[in-house]
Amino acid sequence: xxxxxxxQIGLATHTGPVKQRNEDNYFLKMTTDPKGHxxxxxxxxxxxxxxxxxxxxxxxxxxxxxEWWQKRVPKLIKKKNLQQLLSVEFEKLFTKMNxxxxxxxxxxxxxxxxxxxxxxxxxxxHVGDSRIYQIKGSQGFQRFIHQQQVNGHDLTPQDTExxxxxxxxxxxxxxxxxxEQQVKKGKLTREQARNHQKRNMLxxxxxxxxxxxPFEQVGFYHSSDLFLLCSDGFYSMxxxxxxxxxxxxxxxxxxxxxxxxxxxxKLANFSGTRDNITVLLVRNVFAKDQVAATDHKNMxxxxxxxxxxxxx
Length: 312
Fold this sequence. Notes:
Shape: globular
Number of helices: 9
Strand content: 15-25%
Largest sheet: 5 strands, antiparallel
CATH topology: Phosphatase 2c, domain 1
Oligomer: single chain
CATH superfamily: PPM-type phosphatase domain
Strand order of the largest sheet: 1-10-9-6-7
CATH class: Alpha Beta
Helix content: 25-40%
Structural class: alpha+beta
Order of helices and strands: EEEHHEEEHEHHEEHHHEH
């Protein structure tokens, strides 16, 4: 799946071998700002199987996200302080989503993990235990660039050096779960948490309790980086080492992220997952001149100011 020659997307979702209904939903939209810099928003929502109508909950937050996109993004991408504005926007939007779910009356619960990608900057907002990973050292990047150039696209990506060695994967989100709390306290290892009988017990999600406090993170990405968004039906089946090793093998064989996403979902199915599975892979190849050093300085300056105000 490719939106244009600067975006490569792989998306796969499946009910899984046990459940009768897929309670996962997803969102992905791309546009450009007035300077021609691309702006993308990707998200996954996992309706809570332990509550009624999880599919309706995840569908509702995606509809509200789309409504926000149509109404607010055309205005926001014209602003100079976009990163700071997005932080305020998503804080309000997550609160609205939570309130709308509570209004329904029945317990409609869902996770929501989203990431904004804009010319080498990322911002993510997250509630629940779906995950967002950033993968560096992509083996398939050079082949993707070559393929696009063969097709007549004049790409001037930020990273054109030959990439060798091992891929590196970083978990960008923080699970809002009971087992994650135990890991932080040193009472469980990561592997014990992954297989624990209480691994699905969440400490925060949308639609169950009043008030919501999303996890936020900002950072940078290179053209060669991959972002992996996935529900727990996928990542709970594998250790981080197994995920990165599998991705490394697939990147050596394929340049098409759609084929890789399809394979990962099938692998989770064959491995015996008991939940719905959603995998979303994205790579954004952008021009080096889209990211200026002053942009980096201004973003960190505004964020530092925000956090200082929060600690006063």
